[in-house]
Every structure is written in C-alpha cells, then in structure tokens.
C-alpha cells in the first residue's frame, strides 16, 4: 500500500475561533481540566505523592466523564 505524507496546513485563527464557538464552554473547561490533571499525574511518581496522584486521578475522571458525554473521542488518558 502506498501512503502519501501530506504537508501540514496551518489553520487560521479565525477558523479556530469559529470551531471553538461550536463546542460548549463546559466541555472546553473539562478539556483544560483533563489535560492539567493528566500532567499532574505524570509528576506524581513517588510514594510520597500518592495522595496528590489520587486527587489528580479523580479530577481526570470527572473531566473525562464530561468529555465522553460530548464526544467519546475527546477522552484524555493519564500518563503511565
């Protein structure tokens, strides 16, 4: 099978803004929260930070629930 590598095309800011207006604000907030919590989970590797990791996992689960309701493909996975 032949695959072609297409060059990436930059998206103008006006188009990004238009796309962003189509997504409800609570979903955008949930996406930011999920991304932040996934980052925090990656930082909490040591046994001393187990409580912070559990808190971040709970926040990630809450945000993912909102994202999955809107579109299951938006779910953010934590660092392993």
What does this structure look like?
This protein has 80 residues and is mainly alpha-helical. It has three helices and no strands. It is elongated. The mean pLDDT is 87.
How does the overall form come out from the CA principal axes? elongated
| Largest sheet geometry | none
Mean pLDDT: 87
Give the beta-strand count.
0
The helix-strand sequence is: HHH
Radius of gyration: 17 Å
Distance between the termini: 33 Å
Structural class: mainly alpha
Question: Poorly predicted ranges (pLDDT <50, ≥5 residues)?
Answer: none
Tally of alpha and pi helices: 3
User: Strand-residue fraction?
Assistant: under 5%
| Percentage of residues assigned to helices | 55-70%
Keywords:
80 residues; 3 helices; 62% helix; 0% strand
Helix/strand layout:
Elements: H1 13-22, H2 25-43, H3 50-70
Please outline what is shown here.
This protein has 80 residues and is mostly helical. The protein is built from 3 helices and no strands.
């Amino acid at each position: 099978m032949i695959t072609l590598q297409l060059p990436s095309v930059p998206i103008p800011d006006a188009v990004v803004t238009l796309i962003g207006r189509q997504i409800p604000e609570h979903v955008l907030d949930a996406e930011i929260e999920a991304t932040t919590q996934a980052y925090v989970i990656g930082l909490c590797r040591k046994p001393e930070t187990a409580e912070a990791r559990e808190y971040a996992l709970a926040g990630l689960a809450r945000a993912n629930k909102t994202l999955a309701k809107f579109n299951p493909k938006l779910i953010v996975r934590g660092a392993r």
